[in-house]
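Researcher: Sequence recovery benchmark, item below. Answer with residues only.
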């Protein structure tokens, strides 16, 4: 079983934080650079996959759906919009001053446990990606028609948390890791009961508990 994890291409919210005050998070589109990143990633994935059949699970946000479309993967046998793979819910972001306050508090208290007002904590996202991963493993094991490889197009924090669940990383380790770059894939491979990761995430600071990622 193999899962190719891909963060969406650069979006408007990545270059203009005030865009969240004008446009709902789920509706933010890709930038021109984000579209180019997705197209380049598509060429790399087509070379990696060849004619191998794959299933795709895509966050229903505009930027992730747009990224998947630009990947242009002809071997996809099924494409499933998967809300459990959506971005962390930040609640209401119409007030730019409050947006900065919440980002500061989240950084101070920790990205995993701090719950945003009217939104989610990282722990909430962790719960839903755990449900998704368990269901996907079950599908691959039980459904002979489900491809052994799945492409997951999601968001930076969501991708890291999916790996945290697969490897049982500590919270300290998770919080020390940086998001993958836009359209920079990570490949999870499962042999027996063990997962492997093709490349590590960068650590922006040492893990306080001294653990190191897989």
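Model:
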């Amino acid at each position: 079983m193999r899962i190719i994890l891909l963060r969406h291409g650069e979006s408007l919210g990545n270059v203009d934080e005030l865009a969240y005050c004008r446009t709902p998070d789920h509706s933010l589109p890709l930038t021109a650079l984000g579209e180019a990143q997705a197209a380049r990633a598509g060429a790399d994935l087509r070379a990696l996959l060849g004619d191998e059949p794959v299933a795709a699970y895509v966050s229903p946000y505009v930027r992730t759906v747009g990224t998947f479309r630009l990947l242009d993967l002809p071997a996809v046998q099924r494409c499933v919009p998967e809300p459990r793979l959506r971005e962390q819910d930040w609640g209401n972001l119409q007030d730019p001053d409050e947006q900065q306050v919440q980002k500061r508090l989240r950084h101070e208290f920790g990205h995993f446990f701090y719950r945003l007002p009217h939104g989610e904590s990282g722990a909430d996202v962790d719960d839903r990606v755990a449900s998704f991963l368990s269901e996907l493993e079950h599908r691959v094991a039980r459904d002979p028609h489900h491809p052994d490889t799945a492409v997951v197009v999601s968001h930076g924090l969501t991708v890291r948390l999916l790996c945290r669940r697969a490897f049982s990383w500590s919270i300290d380790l998770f919080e020390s890791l940086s998001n993958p770059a836009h359209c920079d894939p990570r490949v999870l491979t499962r042999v027996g009961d063990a997962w492997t990761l093709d490349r590590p995430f960068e650590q922006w600071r040492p893990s306080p508990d001294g653990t190191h990622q897989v």
